[in-house]
Design a protein that fits this description.
alpha/beta, 5-stranded mixed sheet, 14 helices
């Protein structure tokens, strides 16, 4: 029987849309491999009464409840107080946690502020979980056979605590069925085409196969349930083999692989380099490429040519812009070639488009052209993205540029 779990993300800023809740998605992806079935994910503000009602119901229903956020030193950080209220316990100051906090601030060359003493609070039935990335220790609190695991809000702190503290404790506590997933990521195919190609595999219960449209292509996710990891893997392997046989080189990666990471691996393995010239993306493509450790081996640099004058000064022929307009396939290809030649790279990528809200030279917002150049060969891709949000167009254009470059590699999988 699967173990029931709930996730509660706290913080009024989440309800107001000021921050996105990426922590719940991260936890929901981790828990199935431990045999935990996520029943609910709830967002709640910093009001202790509302938080208490939500947490009490979750604690009663679920074997494990995971909270994120609310462990800071300020008045509106109320997760500890809410757990104490649910457990009907009084918070006391734990001297070991005090010493740990003082050591953290001492390592930073400063004294611990008095208000951080709040983070050394604990209750009977709870233990403090070290936070190596911040000042907020987590809690592992248990009563009547039900566990509440309190995790910090900053994603880097939560993920480090999960990987180094919580996963180990959880693995030693839970036994039962296991759910494993395997995601295969395709490139250059429409969702309807993917559906048609694997229609015979759809409709299975175990393993289940789902199709999801993502910014970096169409994803195929295999979900298998078994009593052990090995059993779940035995269910996944034959389905994965069939999918790979059908899609071949259209599969560019799997699971947590990113398109920029996949590109970096290909460029490194082949000893090739890339340079970019960006207009509408404003440097976002270069930023994405350099998110990958070791990218200095293959990324030569970028020109953010936001104006026509800078495009021309960087090697794009003025007559080309005059004839076709700055937002055109011809200019995107010329930008790619200019970046390749000026920065001495094997590949050049050019991105030009209209982020909005106004049209440019007759091109409507959301129109983006990506050019890719290599010695003796250039090509371009025309994209039309939803025009309602400049940031969205920039992000989609960046992903389109990465995919266009990746698509030049015909690598058998």
């Amino acid at each position: 029987m699967l173990i029931k779990a709930e996730i509660i993300a706290s913080g009024t800023e989440l309800l107001m849309g000021e921050l996105q809740d990426s922590n719940s998605a991260y936890l929901a992806a981790q828990l199935p491999s431990f045999g935990l079935e996520v029943l609910r994910i709830t967002l709640v503000g910093d009001d202790i009464k509302q938080y208490g009602e939500v947490l009490f119901r979750a604690w009663q229903r679920a074997d494990f409840t995971f909270t994120t956020g609310g462990l800071g030193p300020t008045k509106d950080d109320v997760t500890r107080e809410t757990i104490a209220q649910v457990f009907q316990q009084e918070i006391f100051t734990d001297h070991q946690l005090v010493d740990d906090l003082k050591n953290i601030f001492r390592a930073r060359g400063t004294e611990m502020p008095a208000h951080n003493l709040k983070q050394a609070g604990l209750i009977d039935g709870a233990i403090g979980i070290p936070n190596r990335m911040g000042t907020a220790p987590g809690w592992w609190a248990e009563k009547n056979g039900h566990v509440i695991v309190a995790l910090p809000g900053p994603p880097n702190e939560l993920q480090h605590m999960w990987e180094n503290e919580i996963a180990v404790r959880l693995r030693s506590r839970v036994k039962g069925k296991v759910i494993l997933t395997r995601t295969l990521k395709t490139i250059g195919l429409a969702e309807a085409a993917v559906d048609e190609m694997i229609r015979d595999l759809l409709g299975l219960e175990n393993p289940y196969l789902g199709i999801y449209a993502k910014p970096d292509g169409i994803h195929l996710r295999i979900i298998a349930k078994a009593s052990t990891n090995a059993g779940a893997l035995d269910l996944i392997r034959p389905i994965e083999a069939q999918i790979r046989t059908v899609f071949k080189s259209s599969i560019w990666g799997s699971d947590s692989e990113t398109i920029e990471g996949s590109l970096g691996l290909l460029l490194t393995e082949r000893g090739l380099t890339v340079a970019t010239m960006e207009s509408c993306t404003g440097g976002m493509l270069a930023s994405k490429l350099t998110d990958v450790p070791g990218s200095s081996r293959y990324f030569m640099g970028s020109v953010v040519a936001y104006t026509n004058d800078l495009k021309i000064a960087s090697g794009v022929p003025a007559q080309l812009i005059k004839k076709h307009g700055a937002v055109s396939a011809q200019v995107a290809e010329a930008m790619a070639e200019a970046a390749r030649l000026r920065l001495g790279a094997d590949f050049g990528v050019g991105v030009t488009g209209v982020t909005g809200p106004e049209a440019i030279d007759g091109q409507i917002p959301g129109t983006v052209y990506v050019g890719v150049a290599q010695q003796g060969k250039t090509h371009s891709v025309h994209n039309r993205f939803p025009p309602y949000n400049r940031g969205l167009v920039k992000r989609r254009a960046t992903m389109a540029a990465l995919l266009a470059l990746r698509n030049t590699f015909d690598i058998p999988q």
